[in-house]
Structures are given as structure tokens and as C-alpha cells.
Amino acid sequence: MIKLCPVIPLLFALVTPSDASATDYCNGITVTQSPPADWTTLLATISQKYPPVGKYAFQNAIQLGEWRIVHVDDLGHGDDPPFFFFRGPPHHARLVWVYSGVGPGADDAAQSELPDIPTKLALCFQWATGENL
């Protein structure tokens, strides 16, 4: 079952992993600005469950083990671009949660909705959504 978090109307500001704070929050976690090899498969899963208003464009991804958080931009929609949480091996990953917005509590929301998400990944997600800038 996919859980959807209500939109939090705040501006999204992603900082790159080269910033010093990335070392603290995302050490050992893959943070990429390039689409993963299975992007076509992930995009098909996303589009089937959440048809875009415009066209989805890959923004970035955060990965630790079998967990991936993929941030996309719905080019025809004005709200906060969503983060899609996937779990499982490439080409077979399941979409398990969707989060849209940024701000305080991003890691708490992830851990509340996905109790088995690694804490380290939840904290990196919080950092990436701009709370610790």
C-alpha cells in the first residue's frame, strides 16, 4: 500500500553533495543528480500510479541499500515536486511512499510512515530537503 503525505507548501532547495554538511548527513549514502539505470522502469511505476499533469523530469536520487528516494519535477504542476520512496532491487523496486514538501520533520515523517527505513537515510533525506541548511 502506498502512503501519500499531504503537500507542505514550502519552497524546495536541494543542496549538492559537495557541500560540507553532506558529509555529516549523507556519509555512505549515494546522492546523485543523474537518472539511475532503471529510471525508465521507475518512471513507468510513478506515471501509472500518479499520472503527471505535464511531464516528469528526474531531479535527483538518494540511495542506501535497497532503499531509494527519487525526486522528480512534474513540469506541468505548480506544487512542490514529489519524492517517491522505492524499496527493492533495481528494475523490481516497489513504490512504498510519496512525500511532497520540505521543512522541519521530513525525517520524522519518513520514519513514522516507513518504520523500517534506515535512520541514516531518513536524516540524509531531511538534510536534502533543506531543513539543515
Quickly list its features.
133 residues; single chain; globular; 27% helix; disordered N terminus; 6-stranded mixed β-sheet
Q: Can you give a write-up of this model?
A:
- The chain has 133 residues and is an alpha+beta fold.
- It has one domain.
- The protein has four helices and six strands; from the N terminus they run E-H-E-H-E-E-E-E-H-H.
- It has helices spanning 20-26, 39-49, 106-113, 119-128, and strands at residues 3-4, 30-32, 56-64, 67-74, 82-87, 94-100.
- Residues 1-20 have low confidence and may be disordered.
Which helices and strands, and how do they pair?
Blueprint: E1 3-4, H1 20-26, E2 30-32, H2 39-49, E3 56-64, E4 67-74, E5 82-87, E6 94-100, H3 106-113, H4 119-128
Parallel strand pairs: 1-6
Antiparallel strand pairs: 2-3, 3-4, 4-5, 5-6
Helix pairs in contact: 1-4, 3-4
